[in-house]
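ARCHIVE CARD
Drawer: 12
Card no.: 0347
Subject: one protein chain, sequence and derived structure
Cross-reference: see card 0346
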Amino acid sequence: MRVVVDHVSKIFTDRRGRDVVALGQVDLAVEPEEFVALLGPSGCGKSTLLGIIAGLLPATSGRVYFEGVPRTGRPMAATVFQEFALFPWRTVRANVEFGLEEAGVSGLERNERTRHYIDMTGLAGFEAKYPHQLSGGMRQRVGIARALAVEPAVLLLDEPFSALDAQTRALMMEELLAIWTRTRQSILYVTHNIQEAVYMADRVIVLSRRPGEVLETVAIRLPRPRREHLQADPAFLQASDRIWGLIKSQAQAALRESDAMGERA
């Protein structure tokens, strides 16, 4: 399954009725079974673009389409959010089942798929727990299991590990890569963290400052499976430096623009 973002732009209207261009014209694609990271300076429209792909926001212009979806009725996208977004009154099992219930999946198939993805995400034994009884890492596992259970054409992750401590974050990155290796799920992964993007992705798409547009796509030429020692690999360092150079120049340009506006005021 291939996801295509074709000349997508987004304009919001602020409280004063002024147009704010969040995204310029964005063109990108996620190939079948590919892990793509989307990265850019703060405010560049990464999460907005993810919301458009997920169908949660309308594009002002352009379109998103999906090529080669293998099964009728399969959801186009499922999203894992930064803040877990679990239902506090539902158990782990009930949270994972939620999307399947909404899709009208039969009880037997729902049970089988829920069990499968609970096992895959390391949640076996926690089925009857409620979100407040879980650590942050466990709660995010529930979110990932819930998204995977509906078997979407593409899995969208919006900074899923940014609320976790450093050790838990490193472990969750490894677990997500292991899940991707097993499922070969097409993934679009939004992050602010350059090293995280390089470590996990096949390609890193770098967006400009607002209005966000694709600055460059950086191919990550590291072998899989990925291990921590690869972060010392020259290819890892080269890709990280290249991306930092792009992001840094955008942040510097935004700062110069802000200073110039202050002087005019």
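Annotation on reverse: The first strand starts at residue 2 and ends at 13. The CA atoms of residues 37 and 247 lie 14 Å apart.
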